[in-house]
Each structure stands twice: as structure tokens, then as C-alpha cells.
Amino acid sequence: MKKAILSVLGYDRPGIVAAVTGILFDLNCNIENVSQTILQTQFSGSFIVTMPQDLSLDDLYEKFIENLTPMDLHVHIEPLLKKKAAFATRESEPFVITTKGPDRQGLVAGISEVIAAHGVNITNLQAVFKGGDEPGDNIMIYEVDIPIDIDQQALYRELREKAKTLTLDISIQHRNIFETINRI
After folding, report:
1. At 120, is the pLDDT very low, low, confident or very high (cuts 50, 70, 90)?
2. Which tens digits make up the pLDDT trace of 57-68?
3. Beta-carbon count within 10 A of 120 CB
4. Distance separating alpha carbons of residues 168 and 170, to the nearest angstrom
């Protein structure tokens, strides 16, 4: 089975997802995973697809260029190759780390540096910065997988210390608790 990952970027407007998925459907590609969001005014979408054996990456790319260039969208396609993980997968638990505070440079870098130093993997990150000093206007939500064999108390302590130096409020919750609390 041939797999590809494609990224689509451009100014947001209605119909982008319909155009992308329509092309994939017409070419008999199966969508396995999608991550799509709007970043300010920009559409950003990533799709992992299974392709028919007789469809080349070049043909897929040409079809996207033909159909998406008039929409002023940029496309990048490459094969999805099975590679060994860059790091050893370890048994882990899903957590959600949320920070709020005044906007300034280095917020994501500071928190993610602590996360990485403990071998924690960020699986999803959403950050909204509206600027200014209103804490509720500047929110970061990190979904992470925390290995069960690390010193979690040291991780929590270092995250809280880093958040304090960045003037951030921080919350660290198991994903199940986060989802239960935020279900309303």
C-alpha cells in the first residue's frame, strides 16, 4: 500500500476541504488522517492518504496543482515512509498542559524546552495569542504523552518554575480529567 502525506496552505475561504477531498476521492485515494486548522486568516491542512498502486506522486501533485492553484493554495506532497522512530517508544499516559498569561516572545519555546528535556512528546499544540496583558487572551494547550518511567514530580516542578518566570498560569491534568471537566 502506498501512502502519502500532503500539506495544503493558503488564505482561508469556504470550499478548501471540499476541493482537496474531492480530488482525493476522484483519484481513488483513501484519507486515513486529517489535521486542519485556521491560523489567523490562513488555512493549514495535512492529510495522510492511501493511494492506488497505479497512481504516482507526480500525477497526484499535478492534479492538485491544476485544481488548487486557481484558489491560490500551496501544496506539498511526499511519500509517507515507514521509518524507525527517532526515539524509543515508551509506555506513557496522555496529559494536557494549559498555560495562560501576558503575551511575549519565548512562551512556547520556554515551556516546550522543559517538556523536551524530560523526554515528553508533544502530540498536539494549540496556541492563541491576541497580544496584551489580558491572561485569558493568550492561551496555549499542549497535549503530551508523559512516559510513566520518568520523575513526573520533577517535570511538574520544572514546568511550574518555568511558567512562573514567564508570568504564566499553568495547569497540568491527565487528559481524561481534562476532557471530563471541559465536556460541558
Report:
1. very high
2. 999 999 999 999
3. 22
4. 6
Examine the pLDDT at 177 and tell me if it is beyond 80. no
pTM: 0.75
Provide the grid cell at 145.
504523552
**Grid cell listed for 138:** 493568550
Q: Indicate if the alpha-carbon torsion angle 28, 29, 32, 36 is positive or negative.
A: negative
Q: Going from the N-terminus, what domains does the chain have, and what CATH number goes with each?
A: 2-79 (3.30.70.260), 92-181 (3.30.70.260)
In the chain the beta strands, taken as DSSP E runs, fall at: 2-11, 30-39, 42-51, 74-79, 92-100, 121-129, 138-147, 169-174
CA-to-CA distance for 108 and 64, rounded, in angstroms?
33
CA nearest to 80, candidates 44, 144, 22, 31: 31
Cell of 106: 519565548
Residues 54, 18, 49: CA angle, nearest 5 degrees: 35
